[in-house]
Amino acid sequence: MHVEIFGNQQLSAVLFLHGGPGESCYEFVYHQAKRLSEIFHLVAIDQRGVCRSEEINSTEEFGLRDLVEDCEELRTQLGINKWAVIGHSFGGYVSLLYASAYPDSITKVIFECPTFDFSWTSKSLLRRASSVFLSLGDPNKSAECNSLATSDLQSKELFDQYLRLGEELGEKKAEIYRVNNLTSIDYSAYTDEEWELFADRTEIHLNRLREEGRMFESIVPLLTTLSVPSMLILGEADPVTCDSHIQAYDQISNGNKIMVDNCGHTPHAERPDLYGLIVSTFLLSDK
């Protein structure tokens, strides 16, 4: 598994879990590693089978639970007693599972634009995709997105339909997730051929999780069992953490919530300075 470690190991440890399924910690590290490593012992990973991590082969057993167990095994191998966890998007889903399974290993959890229910998220993404199709002059695809968003399809079917329609948007798919102030990022650390190889690995990771199906189970009920302090970081224009997620999070007793304005799905990249301040202030506080 690809692991990146920053900052003095005597500082409080923080684990970052990326989204997707199948994104990477590359973008987060690019924008946040220097900022956060001045205050924390930061650990960031490409989850099993993703991007720079070793490819999952066809005979290897792999499922959602492995992502949780990988976190705990990594903590043990690094000799970290406890750490805080930051989970972005699908990483928020994994973070909640991890905190629920191993509460004694975790000090605090930050959920950055998370999903806890793929049905809720898929419907919200479809509604946003509808708006993008309409802006591109395709009312038929726009109507199809809206129809799916109000349907009774199961979580996996909704997610698969969103993936299909998102692919049809091509580069315009980014408009679903972000506002126009995205901070630039340099991808030249790897060649185009290497990025293509990373994408192939990521596709295997995603498909194996889809086939297993456990990621489509709502884990919203776990929120009220969370025993460590947490924070929900929201992007003002983020479609992933929809109103249903926010209302569910509001039911927990030890939760904090903050909205980042002029921002979409990736506050760590769109508002990096503010994000670093929010994260460090919360993790260093007594709350």
UniProtKB/TrEMBL annotation:
Record's keyword annotation contains Hydrolase: yes
A GO molecular function held by the record: aminopeptidase activity
InterPro entries: AB_hydrolase_1, AB_hydrolase_fold, AB_hydrolase_sf, Peptidase_S33
Domain spans labelled AB hydrolase-1: 13-272
A Pfam match: Abhydrolase_1
The keyword Hydrolase belongs to this UniProt entry's keyword annotation: yes
Keyword terms, alphabetized: Hydrolase
Name this polypeptide is given: Alpha/beta hydrolase
Organism: Paenibacillus agri
